[in-house]
Amino acid sequence: MSAGMPPSARQGVIRRWTTRRWLRVGVGAALVLLAVLSGVGVWAMDRATSLTHELVDTRSPSLTNSVRLETALVNQETGVRGYGLTGDRQFLEPYQKGLADQKTAVDRLGELLVDNARGRSDLRTVLDRARTWQELLAVPVASAPAGAPVPLATERADASKAAFDRLREAMTVQQDHLRDARVAAVDDLKSAERLRNLVFATIAAVIALMAVAVFEGLRRGVNQPLTRLGDDARRVTRGDFTHHITLSGPADLRALGADVESMRRRLADELGTSERQRRLLDARTADLKRSNEELEQFAYIASHDLQEPLRKVSSFSQLLQRRYGGRLDERADQYIAYAVDGANRMQVLINDLLAFSRVGRLDSDREPVDLDALVDRTFDTLSISIEESGARVERDDLPTVLGDATQLGMVWQNLISNAVKFRSPDRTPEIRVTVAEVPGPQAAADRADDHATGTGGAGTEREARGMWRFTVRDNGIGIDQAYADRIFVIFQRLHTKDRYPGSGIGLAMCKKIVEHHGGTITLDATEGPGTSISFTLPRRPALPAIPEGEAAEADGADGAGPEDPAAPADPR
Asked: What is the 3-state secondary structure (H, E, C) of 148-208?
């Protein structure tokens, strides 16, 4: 980064740094600092170790060998002086041993003082003065014959004493120098140890500060922005789509926040669009519901109000047929027959429309319906047509369900009468009514959840959500699967009324009644001739409450009740 760059530009460059770059820069700076501190620590450790080796291997042994050299020279002086006074060879033993110790100490000092110029100079001075004393007294006296005092020892006693005193002075100077060097080495070692300890304490402090800095940097640069982003995202997921995502932290985290904010805005826009579409759909649904209610009301009123004029047309047509039948020409009789037949069919159609419009509008209280007894009554009602067709009828034992007995009777009557009506002329009609228990949609979903979670559901609850599937199967002319949906649409016929009479409302009414009871009705695919129609009914349906307004409206639309002379006949 350029030193001449303006502060705002530098801040802009830093704001573009990603988490990876911050980590690289931070780790790199920490490694450089640790490398420098490690180098200083290694140097301090090496210096302390070097001074320790110097003190242990050089300074202290030098002083020790200097003292040994002095002891060896003192032993020589003591032995020579005793031998010179007595002539006894026993006194030469300390002298001989002193010579050997002198040689050892001098050799060792030579090795230890190889890098010490002043120490070598002091050693040379000591050796020179030792040689002077030895040549003056020690060597001549030690070489004299034993057995009698050596006169030379007495003659040179003063000179020997002066020479040895100078030797002592030289050794004292040497030892003082060596002692000073040892003290200086000890002081240097202590200083080096203090420096080493300070360096390592500094390294420990720097590492601790770096750990704190890394923790704080991660907390402020990564953890806090991620926490803030997570809190904002959770607020959005809880439904607060107007809450803006706060952008903070390194560039990549801000980019992530920007992506989440873009997603939030997109979701908010889509939610707004969906909300507007939902309101529009609700409005259209309300309009459609109102339109359907008006159409049903219109169908009921229209068919209800058509009863009186139609009854007059039918009555006068039949009266005309009875009074003038056979008195007019054949064509007039035919026209009168057409008028009577049309009026009768119109009466049937209006009655069917009235029954169709009532389904779902006038809910009677649901009560247990014994389908065994209901189907038996249906067979009794259709007994004449069943006997005329020679149909064979079989059925299973049917359960008891909750529903409207009149409406369910209409379903059975339509399905069984269709099975008789649309029989094949080539074979004896056979009608089979069966029932089976099948799981409802919610029960199937619960069973899948239980299988996924490994938990078992309550059997009673499963049965409560189950469905009964009823099937009416015949061996008649059959229905092509291409018309599986069309046959349940009102007024849709697959055959002409001349061949198979009817209004085209029967199956549409069955569909409306079954769906009103919470079930479905379908045309089954079959192998072989005939038709199979199945419908389902809940075993224990949850019955929706009827709003009071709708019930009052339905009651008002129903006319004057049972005493109304225009009321339709029983749709069964």
From this structure: CCCHHHHHCHHHHHHHHHHHHHHHHHHHHHHHHHHHHHHHHHHHHHHHHHHHHHHHHHHHH
Q: Is the pLDDT of residue 571 over 50?
A: no
Q: Are the CB atoms for 109 and 123 separated by under 8 Å?
A: yes
Write out the two tokens for 320. Answer: 């005309």
Residue 65: phi and psi, rounded to 5, are: -70, -30
Q: Residue holding tokens 């929706």?
A: 544
**Burial zone of 104 (CB within 10 Å; 0-12 exposed, 13-18 middle, 19+ buried):** middle
Which ranges of 359-404 does DSSP label H, i.e. alpha helix?
Answer: 371-381, 383-389
Q: Which of 176, 178, 199, 196 is nearest to 188 (CA)?
A: 196
Name the residue type at position 471: T
Instruction: Give the torsion through C-alpha atoms of 382, 383, 388, 392, to 10 deg.
Output: 100
**pLDDT tens readout for residues 418-434:** 888 888 888 888 889 99
Report the pLDDT value the prediction gives residue 559, as an integer from 0 to 100: 35
What is the b/e burial string over 298-331, where b = at least 16 CB atoms within 10 angstroms of the residue's CB?
A: eebeebbebbeebeebbeebbebeeeeeeeeeee
User: Tell me, what's the pLDDT at 435?
Assistant: 93
Give yes or no for residue 456 having a pLDDT over 80: no
Q: What does the CA dihedral 256, 260, 263, 268 come to, rounded to 10 degrees?
A: -160
Report the C-alpha gap between 495 and 379 in whole angstroms. Answer: 25
Q: How far apart are CA 571 and CA 355, in angstroms?
A: 6
pLDDT in the model for residue 95 = 85
pLDDT at residue number 504: 66
- Is 263 in a helix, a strand, or coil? helix
Count the helices and strands in the chain (H runs, E runs). 18, 7
Cα–Cα dist 62/54, whole Å: 11
Q: What are phi and psi of 205, to 5 degrees?
A: -65, -40
Q: Which residue has the tokens 């006997």?
A: 387
Burial classification of residue 77, based on how many CB atoms lie within 10 Å of its CB (0-12 exposed, 13-18 middle, 19 or more buried) = buried
Rounded Cα distance between 121 and 130, Å, is 14
Average pLDDT, the chain: 78
SS3 readout for 456-500: CCCHHHHHHCCEEEEEEEECCCCCCHHHCCHHHCCCCCCCCCCCC
Whose tokens are 């991620």? That residue is 226
Q: What is the average per-residue pLDDT within 12-30? A: 79
Can you list the pairs that 368-373 forms with residues at least 24 positions away whose Cβ atoms lie under 8 Å? 368/400, 368/401, 368/402, 369/400, 369/401, 369/402, 369/403, 369/404, 369/405, 369/408, 370/398, 370/400, 371/398, 371/399, 371/400, 371/401, 371/408, 371/412, 371/470, 372/397, 372/398
Q: What is the pLDDT of residues 60-117, one digit of tens each?
A: 898 899 899 889 899 988 888 888 888 788 888 888 888 899 899 899 888 888 888 8
With H, G, I as helix, E, B as strand and everything else as coil, classify residue 363.
coil
d(CA 289, CA 273): 24
